[in-house]
Design a protein that fits this description.
The chain has about 550 residues and is an alpha+beta fold. It is built from 11 helices and 37 strands.
């Protein structure tokens, strides 16, 4: 018998406080002069106030880093420092040298070497002191992996997605708080899409919630991509790939089954993905600037007609059952090189893009994962279905999908933004408002509404009271209204301005007891944009009214 935790996150609690310092988070890949890396590394030197930058490692230090930092104006005394033993890491001379820097950069390598050699030493404290004094700390690949409050330490070696998904509690899913907790309530991962690490970062989040009853924010950074995070938690993305942010959504019940020896089950995890030029507030999980390419969208949620059918995750023919099919999946680095193709198909499951054999071939993880997200970015509102070879599913005429084995659902019905880099050189895109569900036998999914029929709902464990919240709030340009109903009732959700004048009806229908959400895009009933200011959302039911204040800040 499995144990399922139902976590109702009503308030988003992360408050990212970075002391006085800032952080450069690099996903790995190649850095070079006059390349994608110039902008984020120049930002790093600027945050270091053109002072001394020291690049550090355990095994060896790259000789080119000092000259690269100096090309952006770093102090000529910038240098590499190999801290190879705990004795050296605990030597006051090493710590004093590190404190001369206003920027410290941790190279790629093996994060367990860093944890084992530096954790709890004077060198670690010196790095923290530089950060707290207003300096900047950076890391790439393994150096990135040790900058969050919680790290995947790799104490027992690495782990790939299907292993993590099959049992998130396995020994080699080693999580640690031992070294450099510079990003509060965050865990990071590198080489994110090229190695299919979306499929291991999510199990890490579930594992931590299972053991601590707290949610982390996951930040996954692709190759040749960097995130620059200032002291206020504002993150700017540079590079050729994307930065993925994973978080528990407020106001939504998250069913998490992370039992030992059991495949992962999780519902309603939020995912935002950012591309070059995007500016994002990590505290509020809001997009501040789309960089001219991440633009507002209106997902297609038009009703469709379903018919009964079966899906087989072991066959590529299953992809033909959707509305669109991603092709060229076996091409080497096809997603990274922009070589995927997409065509409309007349399948029996409209409104979907289906990806079978998702974890079957390691070399295709990137193409298959990115391919589904790429299709959704072009056609917001699509439902992405991901299945591996041991999974099947049935869909009935009401659109209820019932899995056997693990089935992923990407719900894009609530997307507020989507887009791709101007040059379209890769198939990596960005979006705001994705929702991820990882389902097993006991959690069917309603394709027509975009919600899992969770264990909670199927057992009729309905909410005890009415509740109404919104997130984000303040917002720009849209917010999601979350409400729960303890009884079946006629439901009307409306928006009014500060003077009590009617603005928009969001919902007007009979609804059974349960948890619901609806998005307000800042538009009036007549399709006009409203101005910045204070508005009120009113929930009317047979038992009375609930209201909340909404603040639109443009």
């Amino acid at each position: 018998m499995t144990v399922v935790k139902r976590c109702s996150v009503l308030l988003f609690s992360l408050s990212l406080v970075l002391g006085q310092g800032s952080l450069l988070l690099v996903g790995g890949g190649g850095e070079d002069y006059n390349d994608w890396s110039d902008l984020p590394y120049a930002w790093f030197v600027d945050q270091a106030d053109s002072g001394i930058v020291i690049n550090i490692d355990v095994s060896s230090t790259a000789s080119w880093y000092p000259s690269y930092f100096q090309s952006f104006g770093a102090d000529p005394a910038s240098q590499g420092l190999q801290i190879i033993t705990r004795a050296m890491a605990d030597d006051p001379t090493t710590a004093d040298l590190l404190r001369t820097a206003s920027g410290i950069f941790i190279e790629g390598g093996d994060q367990w070497d860093y944890v084992e050699t530096w954790a709890g030493t004077l060198a670690e404290q010196a790095i923290i002191d530089v950060f707290n004094a207003g300096g900047v700390i950076g890391g790439t690949s393994a150096g990135l992996a040790v900058l969050g409050q919680v790290d995947f330490s790799a104490e027992y070696g690495s782990i790939i997605a299907p292993e993590a998904l099959d049992n998130p509690c396995r020994l080699d899913m080693a999580l640690s708080e031992a070294l450099l907790p510079l990003l509060p309530d965050v865990i990071t991962d590198s080489h994110f899409h090229s190695r299919g690490r979306l499929g291991r970062l999510i199990p890490m989040l579930a594992r931590w919630e299972h053991e601590s009853d707290t949610w982390l924010t996951g930040i996954g950074i692709a190759d040749n991509t960097a995130a620059c995070v200032d002291a206020q938690g504002v993150m700017t993305v540079y590079g050729e790939g994307s930065v993925s942010v994973l978080y528990a959504q407020p106001g939504i019940t998250h069913n998490v089954d992370c039992s030992d020896t059991q495949p992962l089950e999780l519902t309603s995890l939020g995912m935002d993905q950012l591309i070059h030029g995007s500016v994002y507030n990590l505290n509020s999980k809001t997009l501040l600037d789309g960089g001219g390419t991440l633009l507002p969208v209106t997902p297609n949620t038009a009703p469709v007609t379903y018919q009964s059918l079966s899906l087989d995750g072991s066959s590529d023919i299953t992809a033909e059952q959707g509305a669109y099919q991603v092709n060229n999946l076996s091409g080497n680095l096809a997603a990274w090189r922009g070589n995927l193709s997409l065509n409309a198909v007349t399948g029996n499951l409209p409104g979907t893009v289906i990806m079978p054999r998702i974890w079957h071939e390691y070399d295709e993880y990137e193409n298959r994962l990115v391919g589904v997200l790429w299709a959704i970015g072009q056609y917001p509102g699509l439902t992405g279905l991901l299945m591996d070879t041991d999974a099947t599913a049935t869909v009935n005429s009401n659109g209820i999908l019932t899995p056997t084995g693990q089935v992923w659902v990407f719900n894009s019905r609530e997307l507020t933004h989507a887009g791709f880099p101007d040059d379209h050189s890769t198939c990596y895109g960005g979006f705001i408002g994705m929702q991820i569900h990882i389902l097993n036998e006991d959690v069917p999914y309603d394709l027509s509404s975009g919600h899992p029929l969770s264990i909670e709902n199927s057992h009729r464990q309905i909410p005890d009271e009415y509740d109404l919240i919104s997130y984000p709030n303040p917002f720009n340009p849209s917010t999601t209204i979350f409400y729960q109903l303890p009884h079946t009732s006629g439901v009307v959700v409306r928006v009014f301005d500060l003077e009590g004048r009617f603005v928009r009806t969001l919902i007007s229908k009979e609804q059974v007891a349960g948890n619901y959400q609806v998005r307000w895009d800042g538009m009036t009933e007549n399709g006009k944009e409203v101005v910045s200011g204070i508005y009120f959302c009113l929930l009317q039911t047979r038992d009375g009214n609930e209201s909340i204040k909404l603040v639109l800040m443009k």
